[in-house]
Amino acid sequence: MWILVCLLPLAGWILLSGLDDLFICLVWLWPYRRRFQPPRDADLEANAERRIAILVPLWREHRVIGQMLERNLSAIRYGDYEIFIGAYPNDEPTLRAVRDAARRHPRVHVAMTSHDGPTSKGDCLNAVYRRMEEYERRHGRRFQTIVTHDAEDLIHPDSLRFINWYARDYAMVQIPVLALPTGLAEFTHGLYCDEFAEYQSKDIPVRRRLGGFLPSNGVGTGFDRDALERLAATRGGLIFDPTCLTEDYETGFGLHALGYRQIFVPLQFGPGKPVATREYFPRNLRSAIRQRSRWVTGIALQGWQRHGWRAPRRQIYWLWRDRKGLVGNLLSPIANALFFCWLARWHSHVEMPALVTRLFGATVALSAVQAAARSWCAARIYGWRFAAGVLPRILWSNLVNCAATFSALWQFTAAIRRGRSLAWRKTDHVYPVHRTPEQRRVGDLLVRMRRLSPDDLDDALMTQPRNVRLGEHLMRGGKISEESLYRALSLQAGIELGPPPRSEISRPVTQTLPAAVAERWQVLPYKVRLGQLYLLTTGIPTLEMTREISTLTTLALRFRLATPHDFDRLRRQYLNGDGHQTPVRSADG
Questions:
Q1: Which of 18, 165, 250, 432 has the highest Cβ tally under 10 A?
Q2: Closest CA to 296 of 148, 384, 413
Q3: Is residue 389 one of the residues assigned to a domain?
Q4: Of all helices (H) and strands (E), which one includes residue 475?
Q5: Could you give the CA distance from residue 483 to residue 37 in angstroms, rounded to a whole number?
């Protein structure tokens, strides 16, 4: 009887939540007449460019911000934009990294807060916004669209063009956000791959179809300037809420409440797709709990504290979905344990009450449908081999979310008890230094740079021998020069091109890697700065290269591209004093 008293409410909750998820799945699968028609490339090109400001708040991001800016500035296919980077005066390494980037790139502007950090992401964004307004006063031009990004983001080359296209009709445009692929062994990061694939493929499109408000993802979000200022007028002139840990969620909720239109740009698949912001999420348990506890605190706890259930009727359902994790996350591990106990009893033919058996059967069926939907979404983006691990990752996800919810409840109640505000509990980030899924093909870049004609590219693709890279094939045929190829490779990977200044090369640093590793990967380390090891290379870094080199140093890796001729000259100068020349392999994209 006591077991039944405990099991029936638990099974009832799981059944209710499962039916809720089943409803979303059914709406997602139901044929929809108004199919999404993405704009063609010619439409994006012909659309007049609105002036865009990209705001990036930072706290202790000196290891990644330089790479983020180098890569994205070279990749973005848009003309009229500026980047404003926020940093705190007591975060000197990050300030130095941003100032270095600002000296090299006129589009980058430093926005230092007036007080030490960390405070909150919203507070830092408000300081960046004020710096943007100062820039406008000096230059006499007004930004029409505000886009938010983080230091770890890989911005899709066409992201701003899509935001610019939809900004004509919508006050908030959300570009999808997806985790970068990692191996099957990385269970914690795999959770983000699964969850964001499902969320961006199913939940958000259904939410928009049913008229629900769209919470901003915090990155890859474009806001109409006038709409943001009207929202700010409702909260004392602050563009972003500085007291909320999830200011992006609050902004999306507030804009919808004011009657502004929102759109989520659906995932599209094909060459150069999907158009999405990609990034690495936390890859260890502690960091994942830290990040997810912030999400639970901001969305569920602070959202409930601020708004209660005061919303139009059709929006109350979405508040329920956003907050039901407060209960579901705590109960999921218990439900998993009881499921395995139930399997053991069923296998041993021990009789259980019929009601319990039926409830368990119903919840298992609903869970199977949910797991199948998540597997399909993950397979569509990462492939079926990766999706085969969805089921064990769901069990791991339940444990991680349970721990994060306990942490969020503890922090939230402690802050209320002590009368303190909640600080920005950021996680450490890494930036990919190897090839990424959305990089443009080197042949397309050469055509865009007018270094190769479309007909020559087609001919080269038809005559390209097996095991010979396209760039090498084009060079052998005299279609392009080495300089053109390496300039295209530099644009493709977002890596600086050319040998570093002599003043930046440290002879002791050049001898830090084992000779076999330096020879195998054709790399030459040349300086250490702000916790990063800079390496000269003749090719775009691969995942295998970065993995092996990362095992030899605790520093973050930062690459610079050089032609084989320049690379060989520097290596002979700093390593081979006898003048011996070691052959250098050519690079290709």
A1: 250
A2: 413
A3: no
A4: helix 470-476
A5: 39
